[in-house]
């Protein structure tokens, strides 16, 4: 049976990749004067931001099942706080970029300011990913252990 808690790890890596590559394309567009890089960066920013929204809500759903107190709960709250900051930074970055492109003001100082805002979003995404990795690898959040003690384990070896 499919568990909805599995959605978050399935979704979360797409916006990470889209946003990092989008930022790199925007940075390249400052040096390589080809419209492709700026346009690709724009669309990757939009798609990545939509992915961040999906990752945020799937993560909120997955985290709602954790009722334990202590270090796991504290680590989860740290990750959630980082995710909320990343969400808002990316939404603001996307809205600013859409407005600049729509008003044909995505040039000069506005372009550099938008890139700095995008960089802050990338750093917030990286920070959120770090805390998410901490949840999985240090606290084993979402990890199911099967140590072979369940019924029927090893029956096939006896035959």
Count of DSSP strands: 0
Number of domains: 1
Q: What's the order of the H and E elements?
A: HHHHHH
Q: By helix and strand content, what is the structural category?
A: mainly alpha
What count of helical segments does DSSP give?
6
Helical fraction equals: over 70%
Strands, helices and their partners?
Blueprint lengths: L6 H5 L1 H19 L3 H29 L7 H32 L5 H30 L17 H4 L1
Description:
It contains six helices and no strands. The protein is mostly helical. It has one domain. The protein is elongated. The model has no long low-confidence stretch (mean pLDDT 89).
Keywords:
about 160 residues, mainly alpha
Can I get a quick summary?
This protein has 159 residues and is mainly α. Helices cover 75% and strands 0% of the residues. Helix 3 packs antiparallel against helix 4.
């Amino acid at each position: 049976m499919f568990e909805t808690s599995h959605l978050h790890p399935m979704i979360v890596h797409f916006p990470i990749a889209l946003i990092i590559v989008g930022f790199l394309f925007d940075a390249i567009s400052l040096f390589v004067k080809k419209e492709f890089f700026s346009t690709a960066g724009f669309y990757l920013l939009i798609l990545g931001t939509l992915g961040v929204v999906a990752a945020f809500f799937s993560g909120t759903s997955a985290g709602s099942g954790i009722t334990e107190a202590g270090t796991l709960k504290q680590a989860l709250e740290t990750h959630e706080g980082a995710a909320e900051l990343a969400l808002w930074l990316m939404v603001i970055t996307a809205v600013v970029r859409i407005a600049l492109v729509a008003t044909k003001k995505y040039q000069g100082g506005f372009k550099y300011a938008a890139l700095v805002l995008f960089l802050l979003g990338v750093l917030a995404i990286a920070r959120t990913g770090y805390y998410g990795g901490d949840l999985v690898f240090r606290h084993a959040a979402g990890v199911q252990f099967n140590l072979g003690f369940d019924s029927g384990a090893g029956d096939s070896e006896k035959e």
